[in-house]
């Protein structure tokens, strides 16, 4: 049962960046989000991404050492062009990994969407 919940959560996360803001439920858009200091938010996102990846390694390689498995990063997957967009001939954007929005621009949205309580620990 828990495995199915993880699949559902991961499936939702994998499509998060493809969902236009207007397609998100009003509850997600209008959810009150506490003011979070920039560095606190970025460190929380860093921590969450690290452990999310370790858990993912257990899903992909069950029974194997998650830390060892995390040394390998796949290439040319469905996500390949998100961080490294191809320059298309005649493209006006000419996006590169240096010009796309940084992870900082997604941190609050991702952490809020997965249900992370962003209030300070002493307020929980």
Note down, in words, how this protein is organized.
The protein has 124 residues and is mainly alpha-helical. Helix content is 49%, strand content 0%. It has one domain (2-116). The protein has helices at residues 2-16, 26-30, 38-60, 66-69, 80-83, 104-113. Residues 1-7 and 19-30 have low confidence and may be disordered.
For the residues shown, what is the average pLDDT?
Answer: 77
Order of H and E elements:
HHHHHH
What ranges have pLDDT less than 50 throughout 5 or more consecutive residues? 1-7, 19-30
What's the N-to-C terminus distance?
28 Å
- How many strands in all? 0
- Put simply, the count of helices is 6
> How much helical structure, as a percent, in the residues?
40-55%
- Described by the principal axes of the CA atoms, the overall outline is flat
- Major sheet details: none
Q: Quote the beta fraction.
A: under 5%
Topology (SSEs and partners):
Elements: H1 2-16, H2 26-30, H3 38-60, H4 66-69, H5 80-83, H6 104-113
Helix pairs in contact: 3-6
